[in-house]
Design a protein that fits this description.
Layout lengths: L1 H18 L6 H21 L3 H7 L5 E4 L2 E4 H10 L9 E11 L2 E13 L5 E15 L2 E16 L3
Parallel strand pairs: 1-6
Antiparallel strand pairs: 1-2, 3-4, 4-5, 5-6
Helix pairs in contact: 3-4
Length: 157
């Protein structure tokens, strides 16, 4: 019996270490990350607030899209110089959150909206993205965003 009790205590101690600090808050962290990606980030782009974007993105942020890599400074400058008319029906559906440590996660999913093609015809716009987000000083900040499979399928008249 004494051996089983010791084994149980050791197992409990090891599982506590493997869970890591803050593991009990994982659900809160996931909720915060989902809100960041579905509400906070889109709101910054919709409001064309370059200063908010600068404060929001990590200093080492990179955007990987369309065959190129854009550092944070260029993304912030792009927003400053190119007011964006955000689609009213834009939404981001989080497919999942993968924690890669106590202070880092990948949030992946799909952006959807109605837009117009180059000739002005309405289309169903969609893309997939994976976003690496790191906690710095108790605040989650995007480190990278990889956007792929951008489509704009024509809508029936």
């Amino acid at each position: 019996m004494r051996i089983n009790l010791r084994a149980g205590v050791v197992l409990l101690a090891v599982s506590s270490v493997l869970a890591g600090p803050g593991h009990a808050d994982r659900a809160e962290d996931e909720a915060a990350l989902r809100t960041l990606k579905t509400e906070t980030w889109p709101a910054i782009y919709a409001s064309n607030d370059a200063e908010a974007l600068d404060a929001f993105l990590a200093d080492d942020f990179v955007l990987i899209a369309g065959g190129s890599v854009t550092p944070k400074a260029k993304e912030v400058d792009w927003m400053r110089n190119n007011p964006w008319d955000a689609p009213e029906d834009f939404r981001y559906d989080v497919e999942g959150v993968v924690f890669i440590g106590p202070d880092a996660a990948i949030v992946y999913g799909r952006g959807l909206s109605t837009r117009a093609t180059e000739n002005g015809a309405p289309c169903a716009h969609s893309y997939w993205s994976s976003n690496t987000i790191r906690r710095e000083n108790d605040r989650w900040r995007p480190v990278s965003s990889h956007v792929s499979d951008v489509t704009c399928d024509p809508l029936a008249p």
